[in-house]
Amino acid sequence: MALGDTLIAVSGVAKHFGEGETRVDALRALDLTVRAGEVIALLGPSGSGKTTLLNIIGCILAPSSGRVMLDGEPVFDGRWLRRDLRRLRLDKIGFIFQAHNLLPFLTAEENVAVVLDLAKRPADEGRARARELLDYLEVGHRAKVKPALLSGGEAQRVAIARALANRPRIILADEPTAALDSARAGLVMDLLRKLAVEQEACIVIVTHDEKIFDRFDRLIHLRDGRLADA
Amino acid sequence: MNLALKDIRHGLFRFVLTCFGLGLLMTVVLAMIGIYNGLVSDALAVVKAPAADVWVVEAGTKGPFAEASSIPADTRNAVARMPGVAEAGAVNYQNVEAPHGGRTLRLYVVGYEPGRPGGPRAIAEGRGIGASHFEMVADRKTGLSPGETIRLGRNRFTVVGLVEGAMNSGGDPAVYVTLADAMALQTELDPAAQRVQTARGAVSVKSASVAAVIARMAPGADVDLLAATVRQWKHLAAMTQGEQEELLLASVVDKARRQIGLFLGILLSVSAVVIALIIYTMTMEKLKQIATLKLIGAPDRAIVALIVQQALILGASGWGIGLILILTVKDYFPRRVVLEPFNVMVLAGIIAAVCLLSSALGVRAAMKVDPATALGS
């Protein structure tokens, strides 16, 4: 598979919590590059720094040092280089959660369209994009249903649709298949790979789910805040 | 997409129930405001009814409402002849309890001279007093109807007309009779008591004193000058209409007014705390959703709008429900509940301010939420 532009470039990123005797080094001078079309897994035991790295790439957590570049734009170099990080997330990053975290008061369609609404796009465009994605993910027939009435698999597909609504080039997922059986987990991974290719996006997934390891381009192993293997 | 309305629709039953609870609280607040206003309005009703300019009462007293006052009935002639006085009338006030229709009516009997100041301001139904004796005009709240009769003292009176909003500061509805009848009611004894007095050799002398004389001035005449002139007579005192109203509010109903005012203040404080608690709890329950919104890139204004709009909708609904309920039940209160549009709007303003302040607490909590919390399971 031909890989495209570098979408995530993390260099020398370190993150520690606390100071002195209570200091914990979650990440130590970590370098990572992810290119368009790649689907990679972040693996490692609990406390190895996977979620910390995901949060730093998602501009939720500031590193203690290092540089971060997303989609060609430097966003961190000792400090955040953009004030409006939420706008950055809205434009460039899609998140998929383990617990799908759909807003319970919105229908499946609205859960997807809300991303475009927040980006101040016309309501018609939001609805059309939501229908397009839900149909593509084969949950279009559940568009008007609230999350409480969706099955686990349906809810996860709606969450994926939401992550893709604004056509982000970076998709971050935290245990997206943890609540799914093998067959559905495989379908979700196939879907994400297809999207990565079609939308020229990269996908970074934190997972412990061994049954999907063979679906990744790379498995990034973290141990004590460092890359153990790549 | 209005997230606040979507969230409300999602939990509509619970939200409506919360609004209804708040509405009941607002009903109590509005009722207290109405009772407070009613107390003041009732107290002033009997003072304002004669549309007087000057009240002439007994020297050294603050009569006839704050204190008892008794002056010679012919004072009216003397006052009527004074410069600037257009007309004057003598009046008498007393409380009586009269049995009627199997119950006891507590009435505020106003004696006045028909054709002179002191009578009812406007007849709502029937006619005014036309005969010299045994006719009365009653306030509608007495429950009496034109044509009915009622015994007051030793005589039976016929109701010939009805008025509205005439009562004393205690809320007892007023009945108007002629001054002569009122004076007789005040002085005539029960036959048995009269026989005892006669046997003791007491001479029955009908009192020729009245509680006050009220004067209306000719256009352009100086009210203060008349009051000052009257005060020169050592046995009389005079008060302008304004002074009489001030006196009534400052002494007769002052304690009740302050009591209700204080209770109203406490009630408003409790309401503010309850509203704040509801809105804060509503926000706390949504923290995970707010974290999700922040994570997917929602700007602060979208999150603030979600909280503030819900707070204002809650406050407006509570206020509306409270207003509808109090307007529905206010006539069933034993005393008048007077709600002025100004009071209702001031309460709306207070509720809006409380909702905004309360939502500020929720907004503060929402702003502190780390978007990363949405990533956890």
TrEMBL record, chain A:
Lineage top rank: taxon: Bacteria
Any GO MF annotation of the entry: transmembrane transporter activity
SMART domains in alphabetical order: AAA
Stretches assigned to the ABC transporter domain: 8-230
Keyword Nucleotide-binding carried by entry: yes
Keywords: ATP-binding, Cell inner membrane, Cell membrane, Membrane, Nucleotide-binding, Transport
GO cellular component: membrane protein complex; plasma membrane
Family: Belongs to the ABC transporter superfamily. Macrolide exporter (TC 3.A.1.122) family.
Protein name listed in UniProt: ABC transporter ATP-binding protein
Organism: Seohaeicola zhoushanensis
Automatic annotation (TrEMBL), chain B:
ABC3 transporter permease C-terminal domain mapped to chain residues: 262-371
Annotated InterPro entries: ABC-4/HrtB_transporter (IPR051125), ABC3_permease_C (IPR003838), MacB_PCD (IPR025857)
Keyword Repressor (UniProt): no
GO (cellular component) term, any one: plasma membrane
Residue ranges of the TM segments: 12-36, 260-282, 303-329, 341-363
Intracellular or extracellular location(s): Cell membrane
Membrane topology: Multi-pass membrane protein
Keyword Transmembrane helix belongs to the record: yes
Domain MacB-like periplasmic core: 16-232
Swiss-Prot/TrEMBL keywords: Cell membrane, Membrane, Transmembrane, Transmembrane helix, Transport
Highest taxon, organism lineage: Bacteria
Protein name per its UniProtKB record: ABC transporter permease
